[in-house]
Design brief:
single chain, 2 domains
């Protein structure tokens, strides 16, 4: 589904190409540059829309924040420190979507830090919660 901005940018690009003067190398380069700019702007508006969608949904925002926390710890060489954050989420959140993300992230982090047995325990606990909720 195209947004209004995407349609406007597309129509603008089509009009520029349709009414372009006789093609020569310089004009074609300019048109190609304009098309590239329009593509970048379309992508930019899509990023803004996606960011708004995530920021306005508490579940999506919480999961994104958990991922960013994990990412920062990983960049600092302290990925194992994100385990405490995921544990805090599991201790405090009752939201199944957020809990699922925490279990998965916890499992990945434990596995990547050499704690595969603990990773399996958390992943199984998450699975048990999901099966219980589905019944």
């Amino acid at each position: 589904m195209q947004t209004f901005r995407t349609k406007i940018l597309g129509v603008t690009a089509a009009a520029m190409l349709a009414f372009a003067p006789a093609a020569n190398a310089q004009n074609m380069d300019e048109l190609q540059l304009m098309q590239t700019f329009l593509n970048i702007m379309t992508d930019y508006f899509e990023i803004i829309r996606s960011t708004h969608d995530i920021a306005s949904d508490p579940e999506k925002a919480a999961i994104m924040q958990m991922q960013k926390i994990q990412e920062v710890y990983e960049e600092r060489g302290e990925k194992a420190r994100s385990i405490a954050v995921m544990q805090e989420v599991l201790d405090t959140s009752k939201n199944p979507t957020i809990r699922n993300a925490a279990y998965i992230m916890m499992g990945d982090t434990l596995k990547e830090t050499g704690r595969a047995d603990e990773a399996l325990q958390y992943l199984r606990r998450g699975l048990e919660e999901n099966i219980s909720a589905a019944n």
